[in-house]
Amino acid sequence: MDSDKLKILFLATEVEDLAKTGGLADVAKALPQALRRLGHDVRIVCPFYPQVQERLEEKNHLHSELSLQLDSLQYLYNIHLLQLGNVPVYSVDYPPYFSRQGLYDNGYHPYPDNGERFAFFSMAALQIAQSLDFAPDIIHCNDWHTAMTPFFLRTQLSENRFFDSTRTLLTLHNAAYQGVFDLASIPFHRRFENRLSCEQMEDGNRINFLKCGLTSADKINAVSPSYAAELMTPLGSHHMLPLFQQRHSDFSGILNGCNYDDWNPSTDPLLPRTYDQHHLEGKADCKAHLQQYLGLKESPDTPLFGMVSRLTVQKGFELLLPALERFLYNDVQVVIIGSGDPEIAERLKAMEEKYAGRLIFREGYTSKIAHWVQAGADFFLMPSLFEPCGLTQMYSLAYGTPPIVRGVGGLKDTVKPVKDIRDVDRATGFVFSQPEPTALLDVMCNALALYREHSDSYAKLQQNGMATRFCWDDAAVKYEQLYKSALNTEITANQ
Ligand SMILES: Nc1ncnc2c1ncn2[C@@H]1O[C@H](COP(=O)(O)OP(=O)(O)O[C@H]2O[C@H](CO)[C@@H](O)[C@H](O)[C@H]2O)[C@@H](O)[C@H]1O
């Protein structure tokens, strides 16, 4: 490395403003931009989905028909170059794999060829670096979808001098998803079958992409210190404890930031009226607007609890639904915006019918409504079973909507719990521990009491949250240190 400025190839299968299903996209937009501000030459590689195509102009076309040849298999694909703020994005255009409406599934089931799709993507990213003559210092991989890249570097490409000084980081945004596939479903992998070790496999004949990455990457990190610590425990390791223990010295946690360019109530163009910490009148208008939009009674004093989430077991619906059955007897309003698991959606629809006028469930995914809920609600619900970091609670803090969270992972690292509703002191939200509906119900009732009976404390709680900052620039400095330690450790180790 001849300068302090690094060349970083950032691999992500979703990027905010291009294609998104969840928090990975938020990070894949904000972190590269923060790294650019530090002067690094960071470039993103992502798949070319139809959503990305909507952003495309003629000038974005870069390379036609790059060819990836593996034995008898040949993949001919194009690359488009887009610009996201100050960061170049190389988008891999291979229609048989990426020209589909869903990123990972058809709305009901994961695509059966996901292993093949993302193995191809992970190798294509390496080919793109070579075709651009961009020899990266660091390849930053994210979750299982891109976890094969370090494996390919250590096996198929181990003799390739182009990547001689390249080191890899694998970031875990959610280690519950591991990318486990029958080898037979991945033609791309036939060539690598005999390079796989037992610890990268499940039951002898299925490949685990995340484990391939965990065993091959130079450094590994989780998206919060508490999640990193939980991964080192039998209960929190998603059944991968031996692997995490084996990589203990290369493993760390870095808390995500919050992108205040996109999530700031004083500048948010999606809100009917903006507001800030010192002028909260606009928030009352946002609440009225949200109630009107959802068809709820426009009552300023009725506490409104909001949730914006992927519909998945992780997000704590097993706690929330029974808790709501008791909570909705109060004079409250609850709105849940979500998309994902159809079974959870069905249960929410049934509850909405039962508690008409008090519970609203909107199935779908619209950024605008997510912003409206963050601004219009009085409390934000996030009772996750586990949460690697969580971004929506950071947004709710910024919007003066105190979060109600379970004290796990990044939620524990970002929300300061209310201990006494008469004096919230420096608290920013409500936190419960036990994964029990009654524990959640208790804190929801405390929140209700605070809102109704201690308006000064409620206002203080809002203020505390709005004054809290989780800056991407700070997180980027920590990533920079981690990249440099990856480079240094390896260089020393190789001497
Ligand atoms: N129905 C809907 N409509 C509109 N917007 C919706 C939506 N459902 C979700 N979103 C948006 O998707 C993002 C969700 O981010 P989170 O970090 O809270 O969770 P997620 O589990 O997806 O991310 C994973 O990766 C991130 C990033 O590292 C970790 O913070 C997190 O803990 C981990 O589970 C937010 O921007 C939210 O507004």
TrEMBL record:
NCBIfam families per the UniProt record, alphabetical: glgA, PRK00654.2-2
Function per UniProt: Synthesizes alpha-1,4-glucan chains using ADP-glucose.
Amino-acid positions noted as binding ADP-alpha-D-glucose in the UniProt annotation, renumbered to this chain: 20
Pathway named in the protein's UniProt entry: Glycan biosynthesis; glycogen biosynthesis
Alphabetical UniProt keywords: Glycogen biosynthesis, Glycosyltransferase, Transferase
Every Glycosyl transferase family domain range: 299-451
SUPFAM superfamilies on file: UDP-Glycosyltransferase/glycogen phosphorylase
Source species: Corallincola platygyrae
EC number: 2.4.1.21
Descriptive protein name: Glycogen synthase
HAMAP family xrefs: Glycogen_synth
Enzyme's top EC category: transferase
Pfam family, one: Glyco_transf_5
Catalytic reaction(s) noted: [(1->4)-alpha-D-glucosyl](n) + ADP-alpha-D-glucose = [(1->4)-alpha-D-glucosyl](n+1) + ADP + H(+)
Domain named Starch synthase catalytic: residues: 7-241
Highest taxon above the source species: Bacteria
